[in-house]
Specification:
- The chain is of the alpha+beta class.
- The protein has one domain (2-95, 103-196).
- It has three helices and eleven strands.
């Protein structure tokens, strides 16, 4: 697993199964599980992991079938990203219901830290920007999907302060830095995964783009 304690007076927005929404987490954890993981109590599982690590208070917990020891990172003018990338089954976001996309647990997980406070609206916008940057990296690598069916992201920033940023879009000052940081981290993780899983590998179940 990857984990860290977060500094005091921080807040975050997350899509993670544990600690999702806007809050003030004290820690973050990204836990690797088996590809056939089928526990129906992932929140309880992540809390058990946090207890073993003595991570107290509210936190953000993610699950992934990707190898967390292959994590990648990138920074851009104070914005840093940690990514774990697994691409066993990338999917297009708008795939029709009749296509049987069986999910994998958390195959592309992101932790992004900014050095400036963001407003609630900017935090939400930052999630969109991070997702766009992730998808750009996948498209550039010819991955046939916009992500995987259970990706998760956590954006962390300082709490309060007079210099709260109101924008997090890709052409805003901090949104642009976030986008470049996420893009490079995901691109590096994607390249590493593809190098380890060439066409025909049993773990590479990419479907034809035509569906």
């Amino acid at each position: 697993m990857l984990w860290c304690r977060l500094p005091d007076a921080h807040r975050a927005i997350s899509t993670a199964v544990l600690g999702g929404g806007i809050g003030a987490p004290r820690w973050w954890a990204n836990v690797q599980v088996d590809r056939d993981y089928h526990r129906d109590d992932p929140i309880a599982h992540l809390r058990e992991v946090a207890d073993r690590l003595e991570l107290t208070g509210p936190g953000v917990g993610m699950l992934t079938a990707a190898r967390v020891d292959r994590w990648t990172t990138s920074s851009d003018n104070g914005v840093s990203t940690v990514a774990t990338v697994g691409l066993g089954l990338p999917v297009p976001a708008a795939a029709p219901d009749e296509i049987d996309w069986w999910p994998m647990p958390g195959t592309i997980n992101l932790l992004v830290r900014l050095p400036v406070p963001l407003s609630d609206a900017a935090l939400v916008n930052a999630v969109v920007t991070a997702t766009e940057a992730k998808t750009q990296a996948l498209m550039e690598a010819d991955v046939p999907g916009t992500g995987t069916s259970s990706d998760a992201v956590c954006i962390v920033c300082p709490a309060g302060g007079k210099a709260t940023e109101d924008y997090g879009g890709p052409r805003s000052r901090w949104g642009a830095r976030l986008a470049r940081s996420v893009h490079r981290a995901v691109a590096a993780g994607t390249a590493d995964w593809i190098d380890r899983h060439p066409p025909g590998d049993e773990h590479r179940r990419w479907r034809d783009r035509s569906g």
